[in-house]
Amino acid sequence: MSDRLAIIAANWKMHKIHTEAIQFAQKLHYLLDEGDLARVEVPICAPYTDLRTLQTLIDADRLPFKLGAQNVYWEEEGAYTGEVSPRMLRALDVDYVICGHSERRELFAETDEMVTKKVDASFSHGMTPILCVGETLEEREAGEAESKVVGQLTASTAHLSTAQVTELVVAYEPIWAIGTGQTATPDDAQEMCGTIRRRLEELHGAEAAGKARIQYGGSVKPGNIEMIMKGPDVDGALVGGASLDPEDFARILTAW
Ligand code: 13P
User: Nearest Cα to 200, choosing from 192, 208, 189?
Assistant: First the structure.
């Protein structure tokens, strides 16, 4: 493990109404002690409708969790019915924004160009993007996993400043491992996270690349987090299904 602070984020996707969000955060806090949270940063990436409630709770009860959003639009304000701006998120103390999750790329036709605008909009409003990259099963079987991931990464990070890369979080999420129960092996996860770091190094130098944090995501569970976290380039995880249950998520935060 490196000296980078680990970051294990909950991605609730389209789950939990605001009252369920409160119950979750209170229970998770109850299940953890201070030592557990000294070594890992824990963003909860909740639906937009939960963010104000979670912000109020985190603030009032001084809960040691960060707030994350699952998406953002890149304009500050305007006639964009249904969209949420980076300014609106920052006003709710959102620190992290998931950009380019594979579900958004696949189901909502987000392109690298759109994802890049979201990365830039997050940074310019003082939030940290969690840039998601990953290949499909067909791409992996065709031997194209690395070129897909490096392509997505390059498209959305080549133009960043060194300071931004230092703050950046990249989530490697192989699409075939998301919600399928099929996890990449710890070696596969490390290998691609290492490839991501080497590419960041080529683009921005060793110092910035050494500070960026890289997560693995895809069927992370209490039973496999320990092996996944052993990879020297794996700094954390982006957890979907297993982040919905506070007991499972607490075990993921502590079992490594
Ligand atoms: P699962 O953990 O449910 O496989 O989801 C992974 C994911 O997409 C996190 O962003």
Answer: 208
User: What is the token pair recorded at 184?
Assistant: 């990449």
pTM: 0.97
Q: Give the atom of ligand 1 at the shortest distance from the alpha carbon of 178.
A: 4
Atom index in ligand 1 nearest the CA of residue 181 equals 4
Q: How wide is the angle at C-alpha 230 spanned by C-alphas 224 and 235, nearest 5°?
A: 95
Catalytic: 191? no
Q: CA 236 to CA 7: how far, in whole Å?
A: 5
CA 9 to chain CA mean position, Å: 6
Q: What is the mean pLDDT of residues 193-207?
A: 98
- Set 41, 103, 139, 173: catalytic member: 173
What's the pLDDT band for 107 if we cut at 50, 70, 90? very high
Q: Say how far residue 158 (Cα) sits from the centre of its chain.
A: 19
Residue of 206, 182, 196 whose CA lies nearest to 235: 196
Ligand 1 neighbourhood includes 173 CB (under 6 angstroms): yes
The domain limits of the chain are 6-254
What CATH number does domain 6-254 carry, 2.40.100.10, 3.30.200.20, 3.20.20.70, 3.40.50.300? 3.20.20.70
